[in-house]
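Please complete every field before forwarding. Incomplete forms are returned to the sender.

SECTION A: IDENTIFIERS
Entry label: holo-284
Bound molecule: 2-oxoglutaric acid
Molecule representation: SMILES string

SECTION B: INPUTS
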Amino acid sequence: VNTCEPCELQLINHGVPDEVIGNLMSDVAGFFKQPLEDKKEWSQQADSLEGYGQAFVVSDDQKLDWADMLYLQVQPSESRDMRFWPTRPASFRRSVDAYSSEARELAYRLLEFMAKGVGAEPASLRGVFEGQAQGMRMNYYPPCRQAADRVLGLSPHTDPNGLTLLMQTSHDVHGLQVKRDGRWFAVEALDGAFVVNVGDALEILSNGVFRSVEHRAVIHPTKERISVALFHYPYQDRMLGPLPELVKKGDKVQYGPTNYQDFLQQYFTAELDGRKHLERFQLE
Ligand SMILES: O=C(O)CCC(=O)C(=O)O
Ligand SMILES: [Fe+2]
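SECTION C: PREDICTED COMPLEX
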């Protein structure tokens, strides 16, 4: 483990082969490069959250984020809806499949480290996520000289899932920002490194020991940016609440048992709004 100055990011060898990452990122870039008509073949449909289009459009008069995206449910493999899986570039599906299985192993290992880090059994957190749903959002942020300071690539939000693994092309283009003590900070993207974000489910499970990070993406005046976010969701057949072994002795329990399907349903039908969604589920 290394610590990166000045952003205090912890660096570990992530173990996902460079080739797997390279293939994915080049196929995602290849997908977005196509003419609009070709991408529209994989457009979002009314009956699903997946497909090509824009995220979180809930009304006609809202200001839209300056980005295109493609969202796919990638794991478990039986849950894939191939209506939304591009066939161009020809290797796209293969690249997504390989990347998703390698990266989820990394997510599981990180969950073990995190549990250990707070003195719990490594399997405690892993067990909540292993074999559960994994979603992949591919974001394309076009450059914009005029509006770069007036529109956002992605509005402030927290991720609803547990761990998010984020990879981006062109690491020299700053896009991701995290909020800390009321201020926005740019996250340094290191070449070939994942940025790991804690999402809502981990805040709930850990009773706030791990905090769901509020983040947003800004656009660049002259350079495009592509990011791929892999979301690891917890089990959904049981209520989700703080795991007793993760609750610090003497701490008040902050979250009651939560029906996670309702939690997601509400998340995906509202505009993105910082930490507000999560806070609605906090006990008084
Ligand atoms: O583009 C980024 O760096 C952020 C993406 C993100 O936060 C998301 O897809 O949820
Ligand atoms: Fe996010």
